[in-house]
Design a protein that fits this description.
Number of strands: 6
Bound molecules: flavin mononucleotide
CATH class of the domain at 6-124 and 190-247: Alpha Beta
Distance between the termini: 41 Å
CATH architecture of the domain at 6-124 and 190-247: 3-Layer(aba) Sandwich
Order of helices and strands: HHEHHHEHHHEHHEEEH
Oligomer: single chain
Amino acid sequence: MDEIDLERGLRERRAIRHYSDAPVDDALLAEIFELASWAPSPGNTQAWKVIALGQEASKDVIARFELAGWESVFPVLEQVLRNGGAAPPSNDDRGPATADEWRRYVTGMYRRFFEVRGAPRLLLVYRTADRRRYVDLVRLSFTALLRRAAGEPGLLQGLRCFFTSLRNVPVLVRVNALTRTFGLANFTYAVTLAAQSRGLATCIQSNYLNVQRDLRRYLGLGAEIDIVASILIGYEADDALPAPEMFRTRKPVAVEWIETTPGTVAARRDARVFEAAE
Ligand SMILES: Cc1cc2nc3c(=O)[nH]c(=O)nc-3n(C[C@H](O)[C@H](O)[C@H](O)COP(=O)(O)O)c2cc1C
């Protein structure tokens, strides 16, 4: 079993869409899930759950849902390609010009680079949506506000404090939803790294989320199953094509270094980094 070091793992993991037909067994997946469960989550809630489709079931779902999931993304892909100065199609030094040519170009790119080949397994990372939790959260936020308002010296100040803080409730609800999603996102990325450490290739895919109502119905899953990520996992094909460079390279991270607090923020912007990042 290949164990690779962390820095190499971070640098060399790539989204792979071309797989061999070699099967991935359940025991290996279970090992990967256990490794990934060391991902951090808010309050250590570990709210992630996984549906691991077998090889045949994965093939079936990919055949039925992949293109449907991508279709709504094609306009976005077109925009990314236009902004990235897409290379003109081969044997033609004139890039796509008309809307029709662009549509054909984007479909061609999808077929060549992004359409899944081979027989990976499909993992669905989900959480169980629980409306009661949201009601509880709003109730608890109110309780906290009331307590804080009650601590004010007079009734008027208390009321003012309460109504001013009320504006914060949507923020609290949003942050709660965000942090819960974060936990699942961390787990998802950890699955890709754990898989890599075991010689497996992966690709996080959001296209299945676009059609998740149909997918849920097809798999007989209830509406409480909130699919947050899907991951292809399998052995990379010997003849796998790398994705176009613009989908693999990294730009410098835009950082604002804050030197002094509080009041005036003396942020030192590194102009070169910002230019490169924009
Ligand atoms: C949240 C998320 C959603 C993604 N959705 C898709 C997808 O629907 N289809 C796909 O082929 N790749 C998808 N990817 C893979 C990205 O395109 C890929 O990670 C990115 O281009 C960087 O390439 P790299 O992972 O090889 O470094 C997704 C990645 C993330 C993190």
